[in-house]
Amino acid sequence: DFRIGSAVAGGGHHTSADYPEPFPSDPEYRSVLAREFSSLTPENQMKWEFIHPEEGVYDFGPADDIVAFAEANGQVVRGHTLFWHSQNPDWLENGDHTPEELRAILKDHIYTVVGHYEGRIQQWEVANEIFDDSGKLRTEDNIWLRELGPGIIADIFRWAHDADPNAQLFFNDYNVEGLNAKSDAYYALIQDLLAQGVPVHGFGMQTHLGLQYGFDGRMQQNLQRFDDLGLETAVTEIDVRGPVGADGQMSPELRQKQADWYRMALEACLAVEDCNSFTVWGVLDEHSWVPNTFPGYGDALTMEGDYERKPAYDALQETL
Ligand code: XIL
After folding, report:
1. Interface predicted TM-score (ipTM)
2. Which atom of ligand 1 approaches the CA of 13 most closely?
């Protein structure tokens, strides 16, 4: 049942000019996606600004194409994402809706989007990045938490479950791989929601790592405590960035360290019973969001150039 996944490039603010399409049609790209991966996550195409670009207007085209491609290739799909502080359309962020209207908009969105893909999404990242690194709910930058209060979290899981009873419903965040204030905050929240009977099924660790920081060796222990709550866990968006030169590459030594970190993350997941999914945040370095988001850093994925395999690729393959 173990799945190795990739994000499907397209639609991002940072997408390479070579891949301007919402789902790259390049046959080589598609054949590598189909051959190397058993799970796909739309990198942007299911986010609010893409799938709900105008009030009451849904655009399912690119996401439909990705889901159909996955099905044709025997792959599962992770839905990403329904509730986030980022990549929301202007009409939502800068509208003047009342809290009652916002609640109705959110409910309609979840029933419409989750319902549209009913039975075709393995795991939905229902709530994305709702805590900051200090473990405080994002009650300022997340419009829903700000306007509707934290009680909305239980509602969105209930609505999503109602719209697709077979999808596994996840929380998802970065900087939660180790034991820290943020992962503790999720642990406490999820325990509380489960005690209330809220349908929460999983916890996703994005795993956007930087070689300039440390790797918390307690990732397995952390995954295990969520597993012990009866949850699925997953590595949902892994990339490992490092400082790069003018050619966009790190030194060979850093690439080796990167390979070790990919291996450690995969080992942690494989060691935990219901960690069944490990997704890299893109196929090729040229698709990656990293260089544009973290200037001076890059080389974060497992393949480069003409789909050449980097040490990180070999490390993952040896570990499987
Ligand atoms: C990133 C995409 O990779 C970019 O293309 C886009 O411009 C911005 O978002 N956490 C998440 C992902 O949950 O959705 C983000 O993806 C990376 C951080």
Report:
1. 0.99
2. 7
CB contact at 8 A, 261 and 240 = yes
Average pLDDT, the chain: 96
Ligand 1: which atom is nearest the Cα of residue 47?
14
Å from CA of 195 to ligand 1 middle: 32
> Is residue 147 annotated as part of the catalytic site, yes or no?
no
* DSSP code per residue over 123-169: EEEEEES-B-TTS-B-TTT-HHHHHH-TTHHHHHHHHHHHH-TTSEE
Q: Using one digit for the tens of pLDDT, what is the confidence trace for 38-61?
A: 999 999 999 999 999 999 999 999
User: For position 238, what pLDDT does the model report?
Assistant: 99
Q: How far are the Cα atoms of 107, 132, 186, 187 from residue 142, in angstroms, in the given order?
A: 16, 11, 16, 20
C-beta separation of 147 from 198 below 8 A: no
> May I ask the CATH class of domain 3-238?
alpha beta
Question: Pick the catalytic residue: 43, 177, 237, 286?
Answer: 237
